[in-house]
Amino acid sequence: MASSAQNLGPVLDKDGVRLTVDDAIATVTLTNPAKRNAQSPALWRALTEAGRLLPGSVRVVVLRGEGKSFSAGLDRQMFTPEGIEGEPSFIDLARRDDAALDATIAEYQEAFTWWRRSDIVSVAVVQGHAIGAGFQLALACDLRVVADDVQFAMRETSLGLVPDLTGTHPLVGLVGYARALEICATGRFVTAEESVNTGLANVAVPVAELDATVQDLVAALLAAPRDAVIETKSLLRGALTRTYDDQRTAERAAQSRRLRDLAGLGE
Q1: Alpha-carbon Rg of the chain, whole angstroms?
Q2: pLDDT band for position 88 (50/70/90)?
């Protein structure tokens, strides 16, 4: 899967992010293994651009990181007084007024929001460390396939910060409030076994089996008709906020659309 996509040449390859597309499958790869795929504002802008560049043919987006770690979190240069060249340091951000600071964080968050679009299914392939921003990037995806050496951790609170890259909502949805609070407040590691047992990950396999497992999952996702998957994804995501009766109504409306489309009577 990944190799055939890469043979087509990248659609995007900049700032530690590479996007390749092979018909219905897109692969987004973090490409700075020497720094354990540490994240920066430039990387976030590239991730946002990758989402905008997805062709309409894409049904499944696979997110992975090169090397032994998926992503070890924020580039530590961001914590230094000088920061990263060309980017605002944390001190610079703190000096901005509320509106400007809010707008900057919102821009950063855009890199983490498009993975849950209704027209795609996103799969994070996670090995080694997925810490802080790395954890939140994995949480941004619909599904997570992890290696048995994975170590998730939310370290922001330990640094005097909060997780602000959209990770809190999916984390609470997956593992519940009490466990999410404990994970964030302690900053401890979550292993592969715990991640599967709590619903944080869909499956954990030995590192050597990771690629084959993802290929099988992607093939299964592509086997169902696209419109049915889109409607089902929208139903399931909406179930988090709908009442039981509202969900029943949404199911009926979605099924009516599907039946009419299958009968050739769609609008």
Answers
A1: 19
A2: confident
**Using CB atoms within 10 A of its CB, is residue 6 exposed (0-12), middle (13-18) or buried (19+)?**
middle
H or E element that contains 45: helix 41-52
Q: Which DSSP letter does residue 26 get?
A: E
Cβ burial of 264 (10 Å; 0-12, 13-18, 19+) is: exposed
Number of other CB atoms surrounding residue 126 within 10 Å: 31
How large is the angle between the packed helices 168-175 and 177-186, nearest 10 degrees? 130
Q: Roughly what angle, to the nearest 10 degrees, separates helices 133-140 and 168-175?
A: 70
> CB–CB of 20/5 below 8 Å?
yes
Per-residue pLDDT of 130-149, as tens digits, reads: 999 999 999 999 999 999 99
CA neighbours closer than 13 Å in the CB half-sphere of residue 164: 15
List the structure tokens of 97. Answer: 């007024």
Q: Is 63 helix (H, G, I), strand (E, B) or coil?
A: strand
pLDDT digits (tens, 9 = 90+) for 203-221: 999 999 999 999 999 999 9
Helices (H), 84-152: 90-94, 98-113, 133-140
C-alpha neighbours within 13 Å on the C-beta side of residue 210? 25
157 close to 184: Cβ distance less than 8 angstroms: yes
* Residues 123 and 220: beta-carbon distance below 8 Å: no
